[in-house]
């Protein structure tokens, strides 16, 4: 289950949750199986487990590798997320080197790119490595930060991500 969120590009440039208590149901294979629409809920990224939201976005070996690269980039030494609640909690925290705004944008881009990668595998049989997905995230984040560098909060992120 993912929540409808968006990046507000206007005025104070905050990540602004929209209807954060109204969950959006992603068509994860576990859910599609329960609806009788498919015959197998096997994760298309690893083929070892059931594709649930937590498995696909956090626990899958492929996703874990992407998160590891993100943590390396941020010089974060912490365990990987095991639950959706841990990821949400992490985005709400702030530290001098990884402010909350950066965490929210990173989480947004990782989830978006993993979802896109999953759909490419499922619908186009197009597979790429986790390092390619990370490079996409890195490039998109650089673009997001660079295009808003005239705003102080975003300019500060340059130090922590672009360096
Ligand atoms: Zn998997």
Give structural notes.
By secondary structure, the chain is mostly helical. The chain has one domain. Helix content is about 55%, strand content about 5%. The protein is built from 7 helices and 4 strands. It has helices spanning about 30-35, 55-60, 60-75, 85-90, 100-125, 130-145, 150-160; strands at about 1-5, 5, 15, 25. The strands form 2 sheets. It has a two-stranded antiparallel ribbon. Strand 2 and strand 3 form a beta hairpin. Helix 4 packs antiparallel against helix 5 (about 100-125) and helix 5 (about 100-125) crosses helix 6 (about 130-145). The longest helix has 25 residues, at about 100-125. The radius of gyration is 16 Å and the shape is elongated. The site of zinc ion has 7 residues, from loops.
Defining traits:
163 residues, mainly alpha, two-stranded antiparallel ribbon, two-stranded antiparallel sheet, 55% helix, elongated, binds zinc ion
Bound molecules: zinc ion
User: Would you report the number of β strands?
Assistant: 4
Supply the helix-strand structural class.
Answer: mainly alpha
Adjacency order of strands in the biggest sheet: 1-4
How can the largest sheet be summarized? 2 strands, antiparallel
For the CA atoms, what is the radius of gyration?
Answer: 16 Å
């Amino acid at each position: 289950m993912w929540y409808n969120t968006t990046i507000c590009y206007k005025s104070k440039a905050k990540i602004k949750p929209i209807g954060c208590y109204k969950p959006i149901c992603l068509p994860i294979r576990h859910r599609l199986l329960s609806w009788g629409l498919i015959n197998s809920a096997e994760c298309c990224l690893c083929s070892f487990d059931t594709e649930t939201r937590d498995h696909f976005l956090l626990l899958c070996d492929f996703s874990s590798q992407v998160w590891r690269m993100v943590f390396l980039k941020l010089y974060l030494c912490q365990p990987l997320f095991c639950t959706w609640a841990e990821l949400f909690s992490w985005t709400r925290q702030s530290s001098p080197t990884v402010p909350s705004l950066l965490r929210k944008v990173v989480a947004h881009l990782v989830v978006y790119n993993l979802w896109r990668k999953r759909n490419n595998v499922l619908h186009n049989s197009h597979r790429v490595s986790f390092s390619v997905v990370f490079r996409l995230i890195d490039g998109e984040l650089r673009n997001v930060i660079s295009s808003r560098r005239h705003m102080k909060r975003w300019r500060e992120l340059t130090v922590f991500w672009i360096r």
